[in-house]
Amino acid sequence: MAVEARERPGPAPRPTTRPRPRREREEELLVWPDLVFVEFIAAVLFLLTFIILSVFVNAPLLNEANTDITPNPSKAPWYFLNLQELLLHMDKAWAGVILPTMFLGFLITIPYMDRRTEAQGVWFGTRFAGRISGVTAFYSMAVTWLLILFDAAKFERLTRFIPTCPPGDGHPFPPCFSEGDAGLGSTRQLQTRLRFSVGDLDWPQDFSFPVPFNNMPDDLLFKNLQLWQDMRINLAAVMTEQVIPLVTIAFLTVLIVYALFRIGWARNSRDVMLIMFTGAMAAYLTLTIVGSFFRGQGQELILPTDLQVDCGTLAAPPGCP
Question: Which of 12, 144, 145, 178 lies 20 to 30 angstroms, CA to CA, from 3?
């Protein structure tokens, strides 16, 4: 009886493992050599450039530091020159503390105000982001320059329509300037030269008010602590150094945001954040450039070619006037 030979079942075939697909090279960035090598080459080129400059260009160094002599102009480090420039145009508390803190707070809150997930981490992720950045940067730099020039009396003729106050007039009206050059020399002269009256109150001397709880009786003081010490609020100084600069900044910011919305370039919260960030950084750069190259002795606005440093009474080094 023939028995059919049955084939023994062979070993089960091993499951084929598919290798992990190799990632495209441009999708990853390695610290070495992609990042560190490029940084090393950049550092070497930077160092060589400074060595060459030091050979052919003399550094404009002054005398050794002397606590008895203050150079004129005396400037802050370059990264603080923007704040030093702001100090010339507005109140020191706003220019040196409050506005920088508000800007840093704005940077911190951007991720919480812009919750959109589209095109995160992409340069110019929205449709008109490139146009918005370019127009906002130009607008911010131009407006900052115009405001600086106006405050430096470069547009003094624009205010010559305001008359000069007649002598002996105790309650001038309409508004006029006290004796001096025709026109407004700077916005701070609104506090010192502008004269007008509201009833029996004359600007600016009668617009000064005591701080609440000023000059409290001795029996109400807390451990003899006199907080205000005859402090008064000078309304003319508040208007000139705080209200006018802050209202101008807010108005110009709202103006560019509104204009870009009207022409259809700005469409969402990310565009608004881009406008505000670009405008602030462009103004920061402009103020730094003005403070570095266009402020001379006494912080006067001059051309960079006329910039000199008063080295004091000691023996001046070469190149010092």
Answer: 12
> How far is the C-alpha of 138 from the C-alpha of 17, rounded, in Å?
58
The Cα–Cα gap between 188 and 91 comes to 11
User: Could you give the CA distance from residue 205 to residue 197 in angstroms, rounded to a whole number?
Assistant: 10
Instruction: State how far the Cα of 243 lies from the Cα of 180, in Å rounded to an integer.
Output: 25
**If DSSP codes are grouped into helix, strand and coil, which group holds residue 188?**
coil
175, pLDDT greater than 50: yes
Residue 230 has a pLDDT of: 67
User: Distance between CA 321 and CA 318 in Å, rounded?
Assistant: 8
Q: Radius of gyration (Cα) for the chain, nearest Å? A: 32
The token pair that represents 184 in the structure block: 């407004």
Beta bridge partners of 225: 222
Q: What are phi and psi for residue 251, nearest 5 degrees?
A: -65, -45
Per-residue pLDDT tens digits for 199-222: 778 888 888 877 776 666 555 555
What is the Cα–Cα distance from 267 to 263, expressed in whole angstroms? 10
CB 287 within 8 A of CB 86: yes
